[in-house]
Write a structure and sequence with these properties.
2 domains; 192 residues; mainly alpha
Amino acid sequence: MSILVLGLVVFLGTHSVRIFGEPWRRRCIARIGPAAWKRAYSLVSFAGLALLILGYGQTRAVPVELWSTPSWAPHLSSLLNLVAFVLLAAAYVPRNRIRRAVGHPMVAGVALWAFAHLMSNGRLADLVLFGSFLGWALLDFRAARARDRAAGTRAPPGSLAGDLSAIVAGLVAAGVFAFWLHAPLIGVRPFA
C-alpha cells in the first residue's frame, strides 16, 4: 500500500501545483522556461503514475475488503464511465458546447470516473486510489473555475458537429478501453 500512496502523492501532487502553488509554478516557468517545465512535469508525473500502478497491482496480493458492492453498482458504474469518456473527449475535440457548459470537462470526467469506480469496488486500495482521484478532481475543478472567473476566461462557442464529434469519440474510446484495453492494462474485465 505504501508504494500506491507514494505514487498518488507524486502524481496528484504534481497535478496539484496549479491548485496550491500557482505563483511558485509561474516563477519556475519564468526561471527554467516552458519547455523545461513541461519536461520536468512530465517526468515526475510519469514516475508517479508508474508507482501508483505498481502499488495498486501489489495490493491485489492481499486485498482488504471494506464493503460488498450492490448488484446494480457495476451497471451504473459502466454508464457513468461512458459519460466520463465523453467528457474526456470534449476536452480535446474543438468547438463543442460540452466544454463551454462544463468549463473543464477533463477534470469533471476524472471525477466521474473516480466516483463510478468507487461505487463498484469495495477494497481499501480502491478507496485510497479512486477516493484520492475524486478528491483531487473536485479541488482542481473548483480551482480551475475560480481561475477562469478571475481571468474572465470562457470556452469558445461550440457547434452541433463539435458536440457529436466529442460524443462519438468518447463512446468509441470507452468501448475500445472497456473491451480491449482494460483487461490487459488493469487486469480486470469490466463486462466479464
